[in-house]
Design brief:
The chain has 420 residues and is an alpha/beta fold. Helix content is 30%, strand content 28%. β15 (274-278) and β16 form a beta hairpin. α1 packs parallel to α7, α5 (124-132) runs parallel beside α6 and α10 runs parallel beside α12. The longest helix is centred in the first third of the chain and has 12 residues, at 48-59.
Length: 420
């Protein structure tokens, strides 16, 4: 699984270039299955989750390869509607293929994803949406079997603005005849990116970025080659911003979309970081120990993202004062807390609430990454910790951060990796 060794207490200085958004890339890659054609997609992040998604497409008869951020995908050869079970287990977000495969072939067979590192991740909202759109679904021995019976556009009210459910329903509805309206849809920028991609492919989607998405189903779209550029990763950018708060820093975070990033930057500004904007770059200056914030609560976009909760906690662990962090999106997303405690953090949790009493300094320790963002948080904590920290299971981090070690080294972090 591999480990990072980080030697703490080095000032951060330099430029970090943000890659393509993981959470935009994965659904867009899934949606290439909808119509058999060639795609050239730019700004694809070089991460394990993308590699896994490509492996799934390849195993289903498609061609999918990428180099230097450029992906070439050809889905004309899709020869099955069954997604390999072992691969689904490795990448939970592969459930997003369900809508696209149903739309293309009329059938789907995919393993039920079950829970994961950050808690139960049910898909009832996805399934309810499909059923309303005319798909029959049954489950046998952990495998979901979906069959399109009487497809027709309809109105779908989501009980929660689930990102995955919104995307899956969009992917099926775009080539289901009739008009589909999704109410209480997720509003994340990644949903807007998916809409833009689908429209480029010839589908008709509007409203993404608001709570109501309108889809005019189109059965046959042209099959000319599509080229598209994925938006940059606001969570990756937020992670480096968070790293900058642990030490005296001046870093340039390049290639970002500032409007996607507001709920993150505003909190760090409140904590005392100076953030200046210049074109697609922000300049982060941190001169002194940051201040605790009274309370933050994770929420669907445009609220503070659950994907930044762990990194923010690492910042607050050494802030001046006490911060209360409430996680409202997932039920089990505090697995980084015991690891931060090993480094001297003073954090108490009660259910989904963490009380973080900032300490002056953390100290190095051997800790385990339990999930993607929690793992990144441990590396951030290590940057501001006295002595050496060993972060184990860095596989989790590599799932979602491209060239993490190299990008940190460019900022002056002393970090090495070993394979185990
Ligand atoms: C979530 C985040 C998204 C982030 C992604 C990767 C939110 C709202 N979503 O998206 O920003 O990029 O993780 O870490 O912040 N739920 C159900 N039934 C369903 C689907 C979801 O009960 O059918 C619940 C989940 O258990 C969870 C919440 O809804 O508590 C949000 O889930 P959802 O947005 O679907 O998760 P992701 O798509 O993984």
């Amino acid at each position: 699984m591999g480990s990072f060794f980080i030697e703490g207490i080095r000032n951060l200085e330099g430029i970090v270039e943000i890659g393509g958004s993981k959470n935009a890339a994965l659904p867009i890659i899934a949606s290439t299955v909808l119509s058999g054609r060639e795609y050239i997609i730019e700004n694809i992040p070089d991460i394990e989750d993308v590699r896994m998604m490509f492996e799934i497409l390849t195993s289903m008869g498609c061609i999918a390869q990428f180099e230097n951020g450029l992906a070439l995908i050809d889905t004309r050869g899709l020869n099955t509607h069954a997604v390999p079970e072992d691969l689904v287990k490795k990448i939970r977000s592969s459930i997003i293929l369900m809508g696209a495969i149903l739309g293309r072939t009329g059938n789907v067979e995919v393993a039920y994803p079950g829970g994961c590192e950050i808690g139960l991740r049910p898909i009832d909202l996805h399934l309810k949406g499909f059923k309303k759109l005319g798909v029959s679904i049954c489950e046998k021995n952990g495998i979901l079997y979906g069959k399109v019976n009487n497809p027709a556009g309809c109105e779908i009210q989501l009980d929660y603005p689930s990102v995955g459910a919104t995307e899956n329903i969009m992917l099926f509805a775009v080539n289901t005849e009739g008009k589909t309206v999704i109410y209480n849809a997720a509003r994340e920028p990644e949903i807007v990116d998916l809409q833009n991609f689908l429209n480029k492919c010839g589908y008709k989607v509007s409203g993404a970025g608001t709570s109501t998405i309108i889809i005019e189903g189109i059965k046959n779209v042209p099959t000319d080659t599509i080229d598209y550029k994925i938006i940059s990763d606001r969570i990756e950018a937020g992670t480096y911003l968070s790293a900058a708060t642990t030490m005296r820093s001046k870093i340039y975070i390049k290639n970002i979309e500032k409007s996607h990033f507001k709920s993150i930057t505003s909190l760090y500004e409140d904590a005392g970081c100076e953030i200046r904007e210049a074109y697609h770059t922000i300049i982060v200056t941190n001169e002194r120990r940051i201040k605790a914030l009274e309370k933050i609560t994770t929420q669907p976009y445009p609220g503070f993202p659950t994907d930044m909760q762990a990194q923010f906690m690492a910042s607050m662990a050494i802030a001046d004062g006490t911060t209360i962090i409430e996680e409202t999106v997932f039920d089990s997303r505090f697995k980084h807390v015991p690891e931060l405690q090993k480094m001297g953090a003073d954090i108490t949790t009660i259910g989904r609430v963490a009380v973080v009493n900032g300490v002056k300094r953390l100290h190095g320790a051997e800790v385990d990454a339990k999930d993607l963002r929690g793992g990144a948080a441990l590396v951030i904590a290590a940057i501001g910790a006295e002595g050496m920290t060993k972060v184990n299971n860095i596989y989790h981090i590599n799932r979602g951060y491209e060239h993490f070690m190299d990008k940190l080294r460019n900022l002056g972090v002393i970090i090495t990796a070993i394979e185990e």
